[in-house]
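Long-time lurker. I teach an intro course on protein structure, and each term I like to show students one example going from raw sequence to a predicted 3D structure in token notation. This year I'd like something fresh instead of my usual example. Would anyone be willing to generate the tokens for the chain below so I can use it in lecture? Attribution to the forum is fine with me.
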Amino acid sequence: MKLTKTRPSKSLLLVAALALAALTGLGQAYAQAYPNKPIRMVVPYAAGGNADITARLIAKKMSDSMGVPILVDNKGGANGMIGTDIVAKAPADGYTLLMDASGPLVINPGLYAKVPYDTLKDFIPISQILTYQYVLVVPTNSPITSLPALVAKAKAEPGALSYGSTGIGGGGHLAGELLSLMSGTTLTHVPYKGSAPALADLLGGHLTFTYDTVITSVPQIEAKQLRAFAVSGPTRAKSLPQVPTMQELGYKGFDITQFVGLLAPAKTDPAIISRLHAEAVKAVKSAEIVQRLGVEGGNELVGSSPAEFSAQIQRDLVLYGKLVKDANIKPQ
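-- Reply from a regular --
Happy to contribute to a lecture. Here you go:
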């Protein structure tokens, strides 16, 4: 039996074209009407941290401009994975957004055997808001007065030198592990549940050094309680211009810089992403945000495009995945 192909009639093609045009028109109309109700901005951490402060300041600016409330919703737990997963599974309608940091998006996938979301498939990057780096500090009364002296002592006494961080897989921990790998030393990591207890133990003589965020460490550095050896990023911190980078001190390629950025669930309408991006960048460039998050907060403001933020995420997934593997870092 010979099969013949049946061509669709002109009338059927016309109906299909009209239907597609109608759907496209509806999508455009929906995007143009956006937003017409409150927006939820999930932060996968408890209140008070860098991501939370960033979210609240940016949300206020965007809310004022867009004319609807943007409500910050803290959903901490599981090293940031609970809140991040909530947004991954939320409707892609522009009314649930994610203000996240590097940990859940680019570190956890290499640290944990199972992560409930796929960073590259479940989210659309909107804009990288800022970056921040870490600084290696010792007490001012420490007999160790330079990074070369610290490394020399670590080589002479393997495992004897200890450093504190705000937790396994955090930026401070990763900076310490990268120093250990690049210097060929064995350093003992002591994780804490925050900067305050780590600082207390450092000043109390129970730790050799810490890697903590620049903004957290600046007050003690200015008060002459801590001595800073180097910052972890590729450029000097504006709030610590006298402190060299690890790269300047001979550690070529050393870069532990983390981000805070805005994302939406995958399949969110491109027109909505474009609107949110424009509003986020406008907020980042505002005088208040420059002062609060940049000057006072010690962060480097970015305001990148979705494509630039996506490329950064992909690079960091590779970078931190390799570091976690090379250092054999395991979650608690």
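Some talking points for your students: Strands lie at 39-43, 70-74, 96-101, 123-139, 162-165, 188-191, 209-213, 226-231, 257-265, 300-301. The mean pLDDT is 92.
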